[in-house]
Structures are given as C-alpha cells and as structure tokens.
Design goal:
Blueprint lengths: L2 E5 L2 E3 L5 E8 L8 E6 L5 E7 L6 E3 L7 E6 L4 E6 L8 E7 L14 E2 L3 E5 L2
Parallel strand pairs: 2-11
Antiparallel strand pairs: 1-3, 3-8, 4-5, 4-9, 5-6, 7-8, 9-10, 9-11
Length: about 120
C-alpha cells in the first residue's frame, strides 16, 4: 500500500533553513503529482507546494513563494522541500501528500494519501 514518510523537521531560528524529505513506496512514484501541505497550531490545513511527476512543473502558495523550493528524485522515490528564510509563521507540521492523478488537481487539498508529518518549529 501507499507509504509516505517525512523527515528533516526540527527547531530553527528565524531566517534559517531546513530541508524536508519524504520517502515514498507502494506505488509508481514518477507517475503521480505530489504536494507538501502543513498545519500550524490551532489552524486548518494549508497547501504549500506541488510538483508534477517528472519534476518539470511546480507551484507554490503565495505565503512561501520565493523562499521554498519543491523537488523530487524519482530514482530514490523521494520528495523534497527546501525551506529558506524561515519565519515563525512557518511553524507547523509538514506533510507530503500524494494525488490520484498525473495532473495538477483543481483543489490542492484533494489528495488521496499523506504521511504522518514532521514538525518544523521556527523560533529564537
């Protein structure tokens, strides 16, 4: 079955950087669109970024555009999120998510599976 396991979270100071990874298994990774979504304390789920199967097309939420970069290594079946210039408001649990299609969905939160998440805390 589909398994998604995130790693790389932690505590970082404002202005710092982190690189998140998501190892995928149980499906043909290169065929599917993948996303990162996050949930801040006391808030709802927020879509962060999306990438197509070949890694040639990406999109970002306005809140992270210019600071975050999504990428993937299909040979390693791994999704990445490079996060720079981190702000306290980026504090959240970050999840990688798999869609049931090779096309970008209209609703970015309409994924079919997600991992258990990794905590990112931005604080001095």
């Amino acid at each position: 079955q589909v398994q998604l396991v995130e790693s790389g979270g932690g505590l970082v100071q404002p202005g710092g950087s982190l690189r998140l990874s998501c190892r995928a298994s149980g499906f043909i990774f290169s065929m599917y669109v993948m996303s990162w979504v996050r949930q801040a304390p006391g808030k709802g789920l927020e879509w962060v970024s999306i990438i197509n199967g070949q890694g040639t097309s990406t999109d970002y939420a306005d809140s992270v555009k210019g600071r975050f970069t999504v990428s993937r290594d299909n040979a390693l079946t791994t999704l990445f999120l490079e996060m720079n210039s981190l702000k306290p408001e980026d504090t959240a649990i970050y999840y990688c998510a798999k869609y049931g299609s090779s096309y970008f969905p209209n609703s970015r939160l309409a994924y079919e599976a997600r991992g258990p998440g990794t905590q990112v805390t931005v604080s001095s």
